[in-house]
Amino acid sequence: MDASNVFIIQGMSDLESCITHTLIMPINEDSNATAYWKENIRYLTILLVIWFLVSYGAGILFKGSLDNIRLGGFKLGFWFAQQGSIYVFVVLIFVYVRLMNKLDKKYGYDED
Fold first, then answer.
1. Phi then psi for 47, rounded to 5 degrees?
2. What secondary structure letter does DSSP report for 11?
3. C-beta of residue 88 within 8 angstroms of C-beta of residue 50
4. What is the Cα–Cα distance from 42 to 6, expressed in whole angstroms?
5. Cβ atoms 85, 57 nearer than 8 A
6. Using CA atoms, how far apart are residues 112 and 109, in angstroms rounded to an integer?
7. pLDDT tens digits, 77-89
8. How does pLDDT run across 28-80, given as a tens digit for each residue?
9. What is the structure's pLDDT at 112?
10. What is the mean pLDDT of residues 7-36?
11. CB-based burial of residue 96 (10 Å sphere; 0-12 exposed, 13-18 middle, 19+ buried)?
């Protein structure tokens, strides 16, 4: 038997510690990681849907409706197709970083 698998039990508190360490902790860590990734995927999905709606929707699908509005002398549909979607993408990157920092702290994966 490997020495790392041998526990010397000196009382009930050591037994509880042994059981918690060997049985409960891996389950909690696994469920913690699963919850972390589910929330991460949810954030990614929401942000990618926003990016899709802005880039494809505003730049192509809703271009005709948006062309009635002018921004800096240019039609808004043209502006979204040329620049707006890029600006929104950069903003979404910063939003994602902020969300992930909060998520890391929530689940104890932060580097601080």
1. -65, -35
2. S
3. yes
4. 42
5. no
6. 9
7. 888 888 888 999 9
8. 678 888 999 999 999 999 999 999 998 888 888 888 888 899 988 888 888 88
9. 67
10. 57
11. middle
Report the amino acid identity of residue 82. Answer: Q
**Are 22 and 16 spatial neighbours (Cβ–Cβ below 8 Å)?**
no
Tokens standing for 31?
């469920």
Closest CA to 77 of 65, 92, 93: 65
Q: Residue 75 has which token pair? A: 């039609």
Q: What is the tally of helices (H) and strands (E) in the chain?
A: 5, 2
Query: Which residue, among 97, 102, 95, 103, has the nearest Cα to 39 in the 3D structure?
Result: 103
- Cα 13 to Cα 31: distance, rounded to the nearest angstrom: 25
| The token pair that represents 71 in the structure block | 């921004």
C-beta of residue 43 within 8 angstroms of C-beta of residue 64: no
Question: pTM of the prediction?
Answer: 0.65
